[in-house]
Amino acid sequence: MKVVIIGGGVAGLTMGILLHKKGYDVVVNERSDGMPRSGHAFLMHTDGLSILNELNCCSRVVLKSKRIQSFSLRRPDGNEIKRMQLTSWQCIKRVDLISYLYELLPYEYIKEGRDFSHFIFEDGKVVGAAFVNGDVEYGDIFIGADGGNSKVREFVYGRVQYTPVKVKEIVGVSNKRQLVKKQSNEFVKYQNKHNGLAFGLIPTSGTEHVWFMQYDPSISDITYTTPEALKEFCFKLVANFPGDVANLMESNDFTTSYIWNTRDFDLLPSFHKQNVVLIGDAAHLTLPFTSAGTTNAIVDAKTLVQCLEHASGHEQAFERYYTARSEDIKNHIELGRELKNVFLNPPPNNDDDMPIPLITGKDAVNETPAKKPVKLIYFTDPICSTCWIIQPLLRKLKLEYDDYVDVEYRMGGLLPSWEGYDKGIIKQPADAAKHWEEVSISHEMPLDGDVWLEDPLASSYPPSIAFKAAQIQDAEKAVLFLRRIKEMVFMEKKNIIKWSYLERAALDAGLDSAKLLRDINGRGLEMFKEDLSLAKEMDVKVFPTLFFSNCSEKKFVLKGFQPYDKMEDILNELIPGIKKHPIDTAPKSLFTHFPKMTEKEFAFLSNVSKDHANRTLNELYNRGVIDKYESKNGTIWINRSVT
After folding, report:
1. Which residue, 69, 325, 431, 638, shows the most beta carbons closer than 10 Å to its own?
2. Among 363-372, 383-392, 449-458, 605-614, where is mean pLDDT lowest?
3. CATH number, domain at 494?
């Protein structure tokens, strides 16, 4: 079977490489003479990057890219309103990606200087593609990968109805080593609060940024004929933006910059007609706010090849391809339009409503969680050593009884301050240091009491308030945040009162640290006070304290450290005949559920001895499957995918 691909950009070349690897007879037809070099740079999601890595499994060709680790959304006055950790994005210059793809496809399969003209038919079926230069390429299947202004799409559906241009974008590349050093792995976007104007900058290397300016042309626009006019217009728009913006544009070559009239069109009812099929921007066009275009093109190619491999014919393959891709594409189109509307009409006086201008990978379906029959109110504290040593039990409870138990985390306020503090044997930081060392030995969980000697916490209230602020954003991510600050204080000797550590933990948990800081000083503080009132009302004096109840108003309480059997006994009382979920004890499965585990946690969840767990974990470490962080009194083992 011969496949003729029309368009030698990212979508067409990726498609050609994938088909060539599968043994198809393939020809990629590119409009330009020589390798395409237009375009600047873009962000690519892991969904696309993983496919690019697959293409290179047997080659030493290296794709140049820059990992982007965080996103910061700021106002033109420099005030940061959002900060998120990014784990799924890299910035790639278009010319570097095209060069990479050219290296992976034998040159004889690429025909340059072929601008598509029309199809040739025989008995009502497309049998050839004719080009402006007079060349004709015959084949069995024809793939349109010729971009947003696709001529192939016109054959399939006629002219589509593009949305009006409401936002324009100017793009450039600048060399400012000092600025790249300052923001080495960060995507920064300055967004005007009152109208449609934004400036974004993303590092592409150790010396270079790609930058873009998005603006509402109804407010200000230009019909320019010279680079000088474009430069003057750009500087006029960002006159009130931070100095870094002007410094960046000073090094830009405006002869290579351009104005992009952004637009999209509705999802097509299918991506094919007879033996002609569309991929990438030819099939679907999204607004630039999502950074989805290049990733979608690559995912399209991979999906279509898979469908061709497993279908009984091309018609069935094309239908399966549309089914597999249409829902995500529809969501991305809608997200782009939502982001455009927010850009043009910023939400008044509410920075929390500003969305992140990126897709999130495979879109998840938001479903209302089913109500669980058992409620567990868990009073804890970020610096409670007993709350740390019951982590193995709580993790096992989640794996075995998560379908039945809804855990509600509450803060108890263990340490208001050291002034007048008198809780049993602990009256000062040095007492806490000694106690932690003893607990670590007796329960075989790593705790390093030296934090109380080297950088003692003055109170447990600030990290407790931070946890309540995290709950405002996302309950599950808040639990990850709580776990992370516990790792910091118990194993890494970090004073988790300090904002730098709280912010790092927030980003690690996938939270917006700028919003967290606002909520710490607002609703988070109020929620913490509510927890303290509830703790007083329920007579909580020991940490941890766990209240179990069900719809019949049966209630049970566990205080302090209790064996796991006690928890199971209570659940059997509340739900007679309850059946626990069997745990898949394969290390890969456990590290998927819990990317970081102490030796005690791994042994307890695997139901093996400490020595057996130690041998297994070290073997995995030596094979490069997991990593580790070693503290004075123990090790935490880390799934490499989170490092």
Report:
1. 325
2. 363-372
3. 3.40.30.10
pLDDT tens string 104-125: 999 999 999 999 999 999 998 9
If you search the block for the tokens 């990438």, which residue do you land on?
Answer: 280
H or E element: which one contains 636?
Answer: strand 634-639
d(CA 323, CA 253): 44
Encoded tokens for 10 = 């990212």
For residues 539 and 458, what is the distance between their CA atoms, to the nearest angstrom? 24
CA separation for the pair 68, 87 (Å, rounded): 8
- Helical packing angle, 391-401 and 564-574, nearest 10°: 30
Domain count, the chain: 3
Q: What is the pLDDT of residues 425-466, one digit of tens each?
A: 899 999 999 999 999 999 999 999 999 999 999 999 999 999
Q: What is the pTM of this model?
A: 0.84
| Nearest-angstrom CA–CA distance, 568 and 618 | 32
Structure tokens at 303: 């999906």
State pLDDT tens for residues 467-525. 999 999 999 999 999 999 999 999 999 999 999 999 999 999 999 999 999 999 999 99
Q: 3-class DSSP state for residue 224?
A: coil
Torsion angle of alpha carbons 444, 417, 494, 490, nearest 10°?
Answer: 10
CA 11 – CA 13 distance, rounded (Å): 6
| 323 & 390 share domain | no
Q: Is residue 381 part of a domain?
A: yes
What are 22's two structure tokens?
């599968």
Token representation of residue 198: 């934004």
Supply 370's token pair: 């089913």
**232-285: pLDDT as tens digits:** 999 999 999 998 899 888 989 999 998 999 999 999 999 999 999 999 999 999
**Strand arrangement, sheet containing 405-411:** 405-411, 374-380, 545-550, 555-559
Taking phi over 0 as left and psi of -120 to 50 as alpha, with beta for the rest, 224 belongs to beta
What residue has token string 């669980």?
A: 372
pLDDT > 70? residue 175: yes
Q: Would you call 73 exposed, middle or buried from its count of C-beta atoms within 10 A (0-12, 13-18, 19+)?
A: buried
The DSSP letter of residue 459 is -
Exposure string over 124-150, b if 16+ CB within 10 A, otherwise e: eebbebebeeeeebebebbbbbbbbeb
Number of residues in the chain: 643
**Residue 199's beta-bridge partner residues?**
190, 213
Q: Cβ distance 83 to 247 under 8 Å? A: no
CATH code for position 20: 3.50.50.60
Which one of 318, 351, 384 terminates a domain?
A: 351
Mean pLDDT rounded to a whole number for the chain: 93
In whole angstroms, give the CA distance from residue 274 to residue 155.
11
8 Å CB contact between 500 and 494: no
- In this prediction, what percent of the chain has a pLDDT beyond 70? 97
Instruction: Render 248-303 in DSSP notation, one character per residue.
Output: HHHT--TTS-EEEE----PPPS-SEETTEEE-GGGT----GGG--HHHHHHHHHHH
